[in-house]
Amino acid sequence: MTKIVSEIYVIPVDEKDGLVAFANFTVYDAIRCNSVGIMRRLDGGYRLTYPTRKHGNKSVSVFYPISQEIGKLISEEVIKEYEVVVSHDSRYR
User: Fold this and answer.
1) Which residues contact 68 (CB under 8 A, 6 or more apart)?
2) pTM listed for this prediction
3) Whole-angstrom Cα distance, residue 80 to residue 55?
4) d(CA 63, CA 52)
5) Are 20 and 46 in contact (CB under 8 A)?
6) Which domains does the chain have, with CATH numbers?
7) pLDDT by residue (tens digit) across 26-68?
């Protein structure tokens, strides 16, 4: 069976307004997702935010998981990789 998420690349940033990193990853070895934000939750932990584009006064999602189950699996894998990356970088400990 194909892994849901692969080729995860995390780019930590200096935290601003809860944003701690950006992530790029591949879903089902078929779709590349770039510029997904990793945000710190106020109550602890992290969540993903997907890119949007402005169309007039509206923000429109570029892409996002439509299944809550798949969204959770993607989030778990990406956040796990984020935690590995920052644990090896003294700037983020």
Assistant:
1) none
2) 0.90
3) 33
4) 8
5) yes
6) 5-92 (3.30.1120.40)
7) 999 999 999 999 999 999 999 999 999 999 999 999 999 999 9
